[in-house]
Structure formats: C-alpha cells, structure tokens
Amino acid sequence: MADHGFPITRSLVKVLAIGIIRESGRSNTTRVNLEKGPSDMWWSRFKARHPALTMRTADSLDRARVHGATPEAIEGFFSIYKALYIQHDLKNKPHLIFNCDETGFGDKPRSREKVLCQPGRRHIYQQQQTTRQHITVHCCVSAAGESIPPFIIFPGCLPSTAYKLDGPPNALYGIQQKGYMDGELFLKWLHHFIRYAPEERPIILIMDQHETHVSKEVIVLCGDNKIEILCLPAHTTHVLQPLDVAVFNPLKTAFSKMASRMGLVRGDLVVGKKQFSPLLKHVYPTAVTAENVKAGFRKAGIFPLSREAVDTTQVVRILPSAEGTDATPATSSPTPSSTPTTPPAIATPSSTPTTASATPSSASTTSASASAPLTGTNMSATPSATPAPCPTCKRVTPKNYLVAAGIIPESLANVLMSPALEKQDKVRRRLPLPARVITSNEYFHLVAQKEAEEKENEDKKKKRKEDMAKKKAERRQAQEERRQVQEAKRQRKQAPPPAEQDGEHCAICRCLVPPGSADDTVDEWVQCEICQLWFHLQCAEVMEVPDTEWLCTKCCLHP
After folding, report:
1. Which helix (H) or strand (E) holds 137?
2. pLDDT at position 536, please?
3. pLDDT confidence of residue 300
4. I need a surface site. Which of 434, 465, 478, 503 has the fewest CB within 10 A?
5. Per-residue CA distances from 239 to 71, 77, 214, 231 (Å)
6. CB under 8 Å to 415, separation ≥6 — which residues?
7. What single-letter DSSP state applies at residue 425?
8. Between 40-49 and 10-23, two packed helices, what is the crossing angle to 10 degrees?
9. Ordered DSSP codes for 430-483
10. CA 114 – CA 26 distance, rounded (Å)
11. pLDDT (tens digit, 9 = 90+) per residue, 409-444?
C-alpha cells in the first residue's frame, strides 16, 4: 500500500486485523476484543514480528506526479539522454551539461527550526518576516558544480534605481505583472545564459516542458549557438531535475532562516522587493554550492550517467483500476508530443493482477487474503453482518471493513468507494508528455505549425470580437436614432400653440383663432419642420396632427 501511495496507519492495521479474525471464522474463539480492537501490547508484538516495518510521517505527493513519474517515463528520458551523452562524448565534460529552472519566493516560510519557550505553553508563534509578493528566481547550474548568475523577476516594477548594486554579482533582473516567468523573459535569460556559458560546444541544457520555455524563437537561438535542449518528462522534476533534488530546498530554507533572524534585529522589518536582492546575495552562495549542485546531478542520474541512481522510492506504482485500465489517452495533445525520431514514452498500466487497489478500501482485501482469498464480486472483505440486499436488483453490495469499523462514514461509502455492483465510467486523463529534444528541425516545424494555428485562432477570435462590437455599435446607433425620432414626436405633440403675447400667428390667416370658429373652440396647430412656422389645421387643410414630420406647401415646393 505504501508503494502505491496509500500507506496504512496504526489504526487501520488494527481494523484489518479484526477483519482477518472474522473472515477466518475465529470470532468466537479469539481473545481479542472485537469492539475495541487489538491492544497496544499486540501492536508492540506485531512490530517485533515484522522488523522490516517502521513508522514514518508521509510526505504529500501531487496526483499529477503520481501518474507522471512512472518507470516508463523515466526510462524514456534516459534512453534519449544516453544517446546525446554518447554522441557528444560528455563522459569527461560535466561543464557542458546544464540544468535550469525557476523557483518562487512567496509568503510560505521554509524554516522549521525549533525555538525555545516556557514549559506548559500550548502555542508559540513566530512573526512572518516576508511579504505576500511572489518573486521568481531562475537558476542555472552545471554538472561541474558551476552556477550561472541568477535571473530575478519582480512583480509589477523594479524595487529601486540601485537594485543591481545590492543583488548577487552579475545577476539579471526583469519584471512581470505577477512576478512569474513568461516567454519573453525566458528568451531574455537565454541571451544571458549564452553570455556566461562556456565557449566550448555543444551544450546540453536540461529543463522542464513549461510553455514559457518552448517557442520558435528559443529553438532558433539555441540552434544558432549549438545548444541542445532536452526536456524532462512532465511531472518528473522532483526525481530527475538536479535543482529540485538538491538545490532549491536548501536555498529556500536558508532564505527563510535569514529572514527570521533579521526580525530579531529589527522587529518592524518585512522582507519585500527592496530587501530581497541583498538577502538573496547573502544566502545564494551558501546554498547553491558546488557540493549541492554535484549531488543533485548525481542523485538524478544525469552525471555520472546512471539510471540506478534515481531514487525509486519517489516513484509510485500504479495498478489497474476496477475497469482494467488506469487512464485512457486524450484525443489530442495541445503541444507536440515528441520528435518524429523519438517515440513517446507512454505510461501504460501495470499488468499485475488486481489483488489490491490504490484505495484504502483494498487494504482489507490484501490483509484478508492471507486467510481467505476473495474472488468475483467479493473484492472487498465482507463483515460478518450481511448487508441488506438492494430493493431493486435484490443483490447484496459488499461492505468494506473501514465502513463497518466506523473509520469511514457509511453515508460517504458511495463517494469514497463505489459499490462493486455499480459500473464506473472510465476516467479520461491526458497522458503526461514524454522526454524530448526540442532543438531538432522536426520539432521546430511542429512548433511553427502550432504557433501558426494559435495565431490563426487568435485572429479568428479577434475578428469575431470586432464583428460583435461592430454589430453592437450598429444596434446602439439604430436604437439612438429611434429614440431621437420618438423624442421629436413627443415634443411636437406637447409643444404649446402660439399665444397672443408671443406674437405668433397662423402663417396663412395671420390670426390666432381660425376664421369662423367659436370662442370655445380648441385650436390645433401644426408646425413645419423646415421653416418652423405654425399653421392652423383648418388653414393648412390637415385633418389631424401628424405623427411624422410635416412640411408646409411652400417648403414642399421649394425644399
């Protein structure tokens, strides 16, 4: 179970021991309390009988690394690297093998030093001395223990005008909106690398496959300077990248320790962008040492070349799922998978039988199999109390011991462990990208084609946005014109007729009241849109006030 990434705790071992007792039919003869479980004395004797077992605190491992760092992916990387190693005769040339990667410094301190306090205190806190701003440091080291001056990326803007004077010698600086690496900054660093790299060629540069590291400009620049770029398989940097193996952790630990100690001198000091470079200048030589760098290349098996040097305990064994497969390949990959000359190393499910599964529910199966093998639908051990059959299909769903023991609530049983009688849909996951050399002509054409497709899609997307904006503007203009027309109509209807004190008269009869009308007659007027003169409806021979624009006879004849 530990090899599969699901180590068993002390409490689970006791629960599984009870399951073995019940499955073997010794519930009535055993002296073990089946309700409370085996005693601490039994646990001590269990450890004495199995001296190969020990108690450790488990480290967290991302699920992507579980499915990416497979033996097949590692073998694929070493097969490509060995060919380059032999082709360029690098056995005695460690100064030509480089590894580069970036690491972030944020608000998570790495220092775990124990501190002194009074006895009896339940909590002891340490004030955080770093800000929440994310600052990236891009490092590059060689197998000979040498280091290229680092590349420091600040978020937003540079800290001051004299930032170069306080930082590491010959360091490169850049800015990005959030303080992360991007394609433009990586190309800038590549020129910096060429400046400080040895003049002897060719050079092998090992790095991960982040999208900011792979572009057409990078391939052209490396090809012109005889630099071979070998990309690691996806999600394997914790095993195969020397910087992750032996350099970054000491660097961050030293940085956090020094930041905490600076708080003892000045309590209100917070390490931000302005103080970052001087602090990094002090701790960088103490962590990025020749000894640590060489140890990283040695443990990763890169120099000296040794596949057996890789720490296999960090590679989790993946067993097939209940459906017989662990993952189904994706329909397509967003990036070129490999060079045409190098077949991709695809992680395939193990062919071992499904006697155990990479879930806690299978632990009972593994332990119980020592006394009673389980077959068919009886993949998980069934407790002595038979569960009630399904009211629909009249079949009994096996119940796991962890649920029966109360470690996992029965209400979550179908969420954490699906019933054996229920068929699961296959989980579709994109397969991790294999190792590959990206400085070949074939891969250059693939990258160029990919960038052309992306540009075409961006142009189409931009054109769609422009068309939508144009149509939206046209609709707004039409709505504004209709509103203006309606407002003009409303104003014409609400416009008061000319009064005597205004000096306005009908342009035809020159009177305020139409001829022959009574005193109580309601006068209705109409105004010409061009000459702006008022007319009686009777004089203008108009039946009613029009809803549209109206022109008098004179304006109609001579507009």
Report:
1. strand 135-142
2. 81
3. 96
4. 503
5. 11, 12, 21, 14
6. none
7. P
8. 90
9. PPPP--EE-SSHHHHHHHHHHHHHHHHHHHHHHHHHHHHHHHHHHHHHHHHHHH
10. 49
11. 766 655 544 444 344 455 555 567 888 888 878 888
**Lookup: tokens for 7:** 């180590």
534 in Cβ contact with 526 (< 8 Å): yes
The string of DSSP codes covering 145-157 is S-EEEEEEEEESS
Mean pLDDT, the chain, whole residue set: 78
Contact 141, 243 (CB under 8 A): yes
What is the average pLDDT across 253-282? 85
Burial of 418: CB neighbours in 10 Å, binned 0-12, 13-18, 19+: middle
CB atoms within 10 A of CB 202: 17
Rg (CA), the chain: 39
pTM above threshold 0.90: no
What distances in angstroms separate CA 404 from CA 27, 76, 176, 357, 378, one per listed residue? 15, 44, 54, 19, 16
The answer to whether the Cα torsion of 32, 35, 38, 39 is positive or negative is negative
- Decide if 176 contacts 104 (C-beta within 8 A): no
Residue 74 predicted with pLDDT over 90: yes
Do 402 and 410 contact (CB within 8 A), yes or no?
no
Nearest to 393 by CA among 417, 368, 423: 423
Nearest-CA neighbor of 84 among 207, 229, 291? Answer: 229
Select the highest-mean-pLDDT range: 153-162, 201-210, 397-406. 201-210
Q: How far is CA 10 from CA 7, 13, 300, 470, in A?
A: 10, 5, 33, 68
Phi first, then psi, for residue 378 (nearest 5°) are -90, 50
Distance CA 179, CA 159 (A): 12
Sign of CA dihedral 155, 159, 162, 168: negative
| Residue 357 confidence (pLDDT) above 60 | no
Q: Which residue has the tokens 């199995």?
A: 50
Bridge partners of 22, per DSSP, are none
Classify burial at 442, counting beta carbons within 10 Å of its beta carbon; exposed 0-12, middle 13-18, buried 19 or more.
middle
Contact yes or no for 137/149 (Cβ under 8 A)? no
Whether the Cβ atoms of residue 239 and residue 314 lie closer than 8 Å to each other: yes
